[in-house]
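ok trying again, last paste got cut off:
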Amino acid sequence: MTFSITARCEKTGMLGVAVSTARPAVGSLVPYVQSGVGAIATQALVNPFYGIDGIKLLDEGKAPADVLAQLLASDPDRERRQCAVVDKDGKAAGFTGKDTVPWQGHKIGPQFVVAGNMLTGQETIDAMFETFQALKNESLPERLLAALASGQEAGGDKRGRQSAALYVVAKEEYPLVDVRVDEHHEPVQELIRIYKKCQEDLFPYTVNLVKRKEGATR
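nice, full thing came through this time. structure:
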């Protein structure tokens, strides 16, 4: 019951997920992202272990398609799931179970996946795909937000609007961007407003946070 984009930036190696749905607090369950490993969005009938275990499998060096195959093989409710996976090198895979709610589907692009279910129609996914592709010179957080906004404008969740989230990592284990709107009548626009406020009052300070020394263990 969600639309999302999971992606890697070809220039910087950043990884992230942007997502919105007509349920509260979508950022608490859908996005799983780890620096130097990969990004996963688990949605429809959410299975958090697709994110938790999927990140572990990516960290072991498994390809996204193999990660998905392993997750699906052990899940009797897999046809009610939807999942997108992008690894640290930009390899991508997606799955949409046949028992998810229409309109449902996903689309894989170069180093990203757009996915959604219970949508007004395919135009949501198509708009996100085209917007992300068109903004290659923008930063990953801004490309993800723009894609999410275009999906909302094209229709989004057919039940309405309630929450949205953006989670992006760079080189550190902590997030570069972690912004959420847990309950709002225009969650995507509110997410963009908060992100812009962070650009003014937060990000200028977080660039100076402590960095882990190269070669140090996690």
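cool. The longest strand covers residues 2-8. The chain has six helices and ten strands.
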